[in-house]
Amino acid sequence: MICETLSPVIVKRIADANERLKGGVWFPDSLDAPPRVPSLPFEVGQTYPTLNGKLVTIVEESTTRGYECAKGDDDKWRYNREQDRGRCTACNFNNPDNLVPTPMSELEDAQAE
To answer: Do the domain assignments include residue 105?
Structure first.
């Protein structure tokens, strides 16, 4: 599995994101929604981990109002708007292909500290 090649700090960050999403689909206004962590929009050229530990590099952005999305090198589109950043389009919030909205460069910097 890819997680075996990632550092323990990065694996923990992914596990924390998975834990927040435990329980399946949630809606942003529901009482059982996982806490939102403020994050910056995805950037073309940056690499991000998925919830299952794969690494995806953002290759394209769409800025159509209401449908702001980012496309990964795996050809999947993910929302790039604050309320559901990282979620694959037309998928639930615990989809293993959803992105953790923290770039690998930041995760690696945190590990070095």
So the answer is: yes
pLDDT tens-digit map of 24-50: 443 344 444 445 566 889 999 999 999
> Is 81 a member of any domain?
yes
Question: What are 84-110's pLDDT values in tens digits?
Answer: 899 999 998 889 999 988 888 887 776
What single-letter DSSP state applies at residue 2?
G
Provide the terminal-to-terminal Cα distance of the chain, rounded to the nearest Å.
26
Q: For the beta carbon of residue 68, count every other beta carbon within 10 angstroms.
A: 16
pTM attached to this predicted model: 0.69
Residue 9 lies in a domain: yes
Count of domains forming the chain? 1
Report yes or no on 90 lying in a domain: yes
CA distances from 63 to 2, 10, 14, 96, 99 (A): 31, 29, 27, 24, 18
Expressed as residue numbers, the domain containing 66 is 2-28+38-112
| Interhelix angle 104-112/8-20, nearest 10 degrees | 120
